[in-house]
Queue: 2 jobs
Job 1
Amino acid sequence: MTPNLTLARTLLLSAAALALATPAFAREAPPAAAPARPFALPPLTEFTLANGMKVTMAQHGAVPKVTIVASVRTGNIDDGANVWLADLTGGLMQKGAGGRDASQLAELAAGMGGTLGLSTGLDSSSAMIDVLAESAPAAIGLVADLLQHPDFEAGELDKVRADLLRNLMVAKSTPGSVASEAYSAALYPGHPYGRLFPAPEQLSGYTLDQVKAFHAANFGAARTHLYIVGQFDPAAVRAAVEKAFGGWASGAAPSSLPVPADPGPKVLLIDRPGAPQSTVLIGKRVARQGYDLDFRAASTLLGGYFSSRITRNIREDKGYTYSPSASLSQRVQGTSWTEDADIASESTGPAITEIFKEIRRMQDTLPTDAEVQGIRNYMNGTFVLGLSSRDGLAGSLANLDVQGLGVDYLNGYVGKASALKAADFQAAAKRELPVGGFSVVVVGPLESVRPQLEKVAEIAPKLPKK
């Protein structure tokens, strides 16, 4: 026997002997969680400018920095049939404003200790910057320039459009995006919420005049709420707000575009020959905006966090998928609940069967006391953690205001979550998730997957004809 093999064998035998000699210790149960502490927002100072722009200020944290978020009630909801015109407008706004190009804007923001950005969403668009406290007044002016005085240089249009076209091509090549596009169109037919992607030729055809018109019609003081959170001089900041935004035209009120009546459940199959896995979306529109805590709790236990029932079932126990998840997509005009997963193609049907099984189990059987307490702790922990930072507080205030909620919801969250009972989970699942009401989208190798779906009782009658 070689010296190396002899040494290895000796080490293995020594390790085995040590393991046998070491006494076994019982695993100690973790300490019980302490009761949730009452939560209250820091004091808010709120006022409205003469042009209708709302302002909320909050002293928050100990670091001498300030987060500034301007939330404007416009986004893809105002695209109409011009899908991604809002995105093109937002992208071009960031290329220059107030006579400064993108690099100059970035340099100014960096000199204040932060970065300036603008994001476009379905119902709102947000400009944001996080700066040193002494730079807050100047940063407010920079945000005002970005929103009110974009340069809209013709030479930048093609660059922004080229970036969006690349993003579009990448998205359309992924099964997740293909599934999401079909799913959104099924839930919100004929509505901007259901138009996920433009055709490439449509995006290529947008003009600078269309961009300018979109900005003029949809960016204004009456649609804007400014949030200032951190450590700052209130008098100096208020004066800066009035100077920078006081002369902005009010503009139109936010758009109101109700979604069409719920079209009912559909099953959509999209072939991806040879794919090793299927992308599956299962869900439906829900009656409320998704902020009812009983339904949020039921959704979390069902599929909304790593230890959820669906995740334990089809990931941990059966190994059908790696990362299933349930989510609530809050929208002003209509919210949806969705379970999504990338599933091994040979297990697509069985995995879907188990998902429906877990939804029914939630409706038929009360969750255990341990499950209820675990969800209470999880919801309260993530909620308080999310509001602990400047950007977290500003973003939460902005999001809830867009949804028509606000301070009362935030201040009451911990108390209401802590009071949830097992029966609340069950009632919410019955109310919002009737098994017969789900739409299902499957993107995968249909030759092998469709025969599996024909054995799933909940969707087999709705399968499209071959």
Job 2
Amino acid sequence: MQVTETLSAGLKREYQVVVNAAELDKQLNDKLADMSKRANIKGFRPGKVPVHHLKRVYGKSAMAEVVQEAIDQQSKALLEDKKLKPAYQPEVKLPENQDEVNAIMEGKGDLSFSVALEVIPDFEVKDHAGLDLVRHVVEVTEDQIGETLTRLSSQSKNFEEKAGAAEKGDRLTINFAGTIDGVAFEGGTAEDVALEIGSGQFIPGFEDQLIGAKAGDDLTVKVTFPESYGVQELAGKAAEFATKVTKVEGPKETVIDDEFAKKMGFEDLAKLKDMVKERMGQEFAQMTTMKLKRDVLDALDKEYTFELPEKLVDAEFNGIWNALTQEMARASKSFADENTTEEDARKEYRAIAERRVRLGLVLGTMGEKEGVQVSEQELQNALMSRMRQFPGQEKMVIDYYRKNPQAMMELRGPIFEQKVVDAIVSKANVSDKTVTKDELQAMVQDEDEVPGEAA
């Protein structure tokens, strides 16, 4: 193998690699000789097929394998010999001239290819022992537990039949038949439909026209289907619904007691409160961890400045930018709506991409130095957590991750990152500060405003 360095500028490296035809021919013959021991071809005894016959029949396909193996082996050897740590998978370019390619495949020409990459920047990992940090914590109070129980009770409302006119919040049982220009349409007729006024279940304007209705009333509800309505044939059209109110029910106050707890699947109210307290504690602890991690990353960001691999920054920026523009398109927003311009937004998110890449390199180097490892069990736990986000599609999720090593790496990344942050926190001077739930939520809100993974 002949290696010539053709570029060395900043983090960028490029090499021209040449493997002579004789070496390729030897590897091809070795491969064919191995094939001859296993080949079973009509006219020849098993394992006795001559190499020259295999070369005539399978030479080109075998040479393609030899060339690919040579590229893989020599690229790996190049990185080892030059002691290079690539920031990403090196780019390999083969000759574009078809005559050169044909000569290589026919064993008449040397294999020449280029390897281009950017290396991980060399920087000194600083000692962060004694870093001053504040852990913002929220205590679960009885008032918060009470608010959660009230919210749970409102989600499982009970109703009782009432006399008199319907009000907002009441539940009506209705029959209706819809028409457009006097003609009934598919899906426009139903009986014994329970509808809570103000729930927003029906077409805008429908529920409001039921306010004041009584059991036994007949009324005509006039509405216009929204332009964005899911059924194209109905979108934007005016319709009338002949409606019969058969029952009016008012909300019945739900008493939060042992009976309520039993309906929720718990032994008694005390057990339900314990569950609520535990869940809220987990939620607050997660926010505390997010805030503490952000503070650690902010501290690291101030400590390190070095050249970044351009391709990594481009990839990170493109991921953020694509997520941002898709989100804006869904919300029908422009940059003017956000009081900025596309140029300024690009600068802002480019800086965020650079921060993420820089911190990723810092954490990766620190983790390597500290010997941080992600166990198979931790990966499996992350995969199980991912599966729970797609109920009914668990097998599809498992198959996707098992067939995509890069996807598994994306599961591993956040675990590795958090373990490095935890290692830094373990050596830091950490003081606890009690804050309110609203205060802590405001502190971590920034992370939700940047598309993609926050770092």
